C-alpha cells in the first residue's frame, strides 16, 4: 500500500490555490470543481463538499495535524512569509531546535497548521 495524497479543507479555493502556489510553488494538477489536486500530493477540498461527505462540521485551527515542508534557505522563506500579501498567523517564529534544525510554524488562511524546517 502507498499513501497517495493528503487532503485539507478550505473555505476559499482560489485563495488557497494562490497561497500554496505563491509560498510553496505547488501547481494545480487536477481541478474537479471543489476538489483540487496540487503537486507534491496535497489535495484541497471545498468545506461544503467535505462537510457533506462526512456529515459533520469542520473545525479549523484544531492543531491536531500539520503539513511539513523542508526548505534549505529558511531565512529567505521567512522573509517571503513576512512580506506575503495576506497576514500570516504564526504559531512560532523562526526558531532552532536543540538538534540544530531551524523551523517556523504558521497557519494557512483556513487554519491548517504548517511547519517549514531546514532539511535534516
UniProtKB/TrEMBL annotation:
Pfam families in UniProt: Glyoxalase_2
Occurrences of domain VOC (ranges): 2-119
Gene3D superfamilies hit by this protein: 2,3-Dihydroxybiphenyl 1,2-Dioxygenase, domain 1
Annotated SUPFAM superfamilies: Glyoxalase/Bleomycin resistance protein/Dihydroxybiphenyl dioxygenase
Domain of life: Bacteria
UniProt feature coiled coil, ranges: none
Name of the featured protein: VOC family protein
Amino acid at each position: 500500500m502507498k499513501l497517495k495524497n493528503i487532503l485539507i479543507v478550505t473555505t476559499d479555493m482560489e485563495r488557497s490555490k494562490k497561497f500554496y502556489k505563491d509560498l510553496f510553488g505547488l501547481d494545480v494538477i487536477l481541478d474537479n470543481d471543489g476538489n483540487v489536486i496540487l503537486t507534491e500530493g496535497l489535495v484541497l477540498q471545498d468545506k461544503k463538499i467535505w462537510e457533506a461527505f462526512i456529515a459533520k462540521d469542520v473545525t479549523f485551527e484544531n492543531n491536531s495535524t500539520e503539513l511539513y515542508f523542508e526548505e534549505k534557505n529558511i531565512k529567505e522563506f521567512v522573509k517571503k512569509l513576512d512580506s506575503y500579501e495576506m497576514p500570516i498567523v504564526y504559531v512560532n517564529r523562526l526558531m532552532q531546535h536543540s538538534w540544530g534544525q531551524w523551523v517556523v510554524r504558521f497557519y494557512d488562511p483556513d487554519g491548517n497548521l504548517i511547519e517549514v524546517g531546514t532539511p535534516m
